Amino acid sequence: MTPAFVARGLTKRYGELAAVDALDLAVERGELFGFRGPNGAGKTTTIRMALGLVFPTGGEVELLGEPVVRDRAPLARVGALVEEPAFWKYLSGRRNLEYVARAGRDREEIGRRLARIDDTLEIVGLAAAADKRVKAYSQGMRQRLGLAQALVGAPDLLVLDEPTNGLDPTGMREMRLLLRRLADEGITIFVSSHLLSEVEAMCDRVGVMASGRLVADGPPGTLRGGADRVRAEVDDVDRARSVAAALPGVTTDGDGPATGAGSVTFLLDGVGPADLNAALVGAGVRVAALAPHRDTLEEVFLHLVEGADVPR
Fold first, then answer.
1. Band of residue 284 on the pLDDT scale cut at 50, 70, 90
2. Closest CA to 269 of 249, 245, 243, 291
3. What is the rounded distance in angstroms from the CA atom of residue 112 to the CA atom of residue 187?
4. Do 42 and 7 touch, CB atoms closer than 8 A?
5. pLDDT-based confidence at 311, cuts 50/70/90?
């Protein structure tokens, strides 16, 4: 099966500025993909090119196996929420969805969309507020109505640009759980978000953009790297240091007491925490705790973005 989203050499230039520079990316069907980068990295430009809202300078995009070309974007099976959604605020949420549903290609499709409205409102948690005017909605309710607009056509692919904008922590959690559930039900989701904690919590894979280039791509756990630093609580710090010194690839930070019980930090290079623990216990060192340290996704993100050497 072809990927749901493919970019090959995708490029957008504004004069000398490369907003997106030769982007190669594939998102598999059923995947929840997080797109991350600082302001100006090229995330929204990429999304706009994928939806046919702006045209690339070079390269190509495919959605659900169909090319996105000038004057023709394969959007019948794609739902999108780009930046803040627009509504007729003097109409109810339900009436807004009815107008969106009537934008179908033919009478049969329009009928299917209209029949989905109640279910869609239920999915996004707006069934109780369906007949209220949108001008009375909170920011979070408007974001959920925007997602409902994207869902009313029963899409196979959702492309969402900052869907948690303006939401409080409860609203963010509800949106995260909703997107995760939709992905588990088989919808492919391509979501741009500036909230690293949200991306790490819900996404199967994360792509990091910097200066128009993709500088990292992989599961959140892979991007964070392995447990290269561990802190051990032992009954004999001096003996623990001696045991570690005999292991290839293990060095000791200079913190902690020199003798007696306490904690000591080890830096590991090619040695796993389990190997270190086995060596300590085998040498008679009692280990009360061994806690691996991993860089947070935020630390990785900052390192990738600040260290990106992107040719122009």
1. very high
2. 249
3. 18
4. no
5. very low
Q: Any residues with CB less than 8 A from the CB of 295 and at least 6 apart, and which?
A: 224, 225, 303
Cβ burial of 272 (10 Å; 0-12, 13-18, 19+) is: middle
Contact predicate 250/267, CB 8 Å: yes
DSSP assignment string, 164-181: TTT--HHHHHHHHHHHHH
Asked if 145 and 134 count as a contact pair (C-beta separation under 8 A), the reply is: yes
Task: Please state, in angstroms and rounded to a whole number, the distance separating the CA atoms of residues 12 and 251.
Answer: 47
Q: What is the DSSP letter of 212?
A: T
The confidence score (pLDDT) of residue 14 equals: 93
SS3 59: strand
Tokens of 47: 């999304």
Distance of CA 110 to the CA centre of its chain: 32
What region, left, alpha or beta, does residue 206 occupy, with left being phi > 0 and alpha being psi -120 to 50 degrees?
Answer: beta
Burial class (CB in 10 A: 0-12, 13-18, 19+), 149: buried
Instruction: Answer yes or no: is pLDDT of 271 > 70.
Output: yes
Cβ pair 295, 225 in contact under 8 A: yes
Give which of 183, 190, 157 is closest to 34, Cα–Cα.
Answer: 190
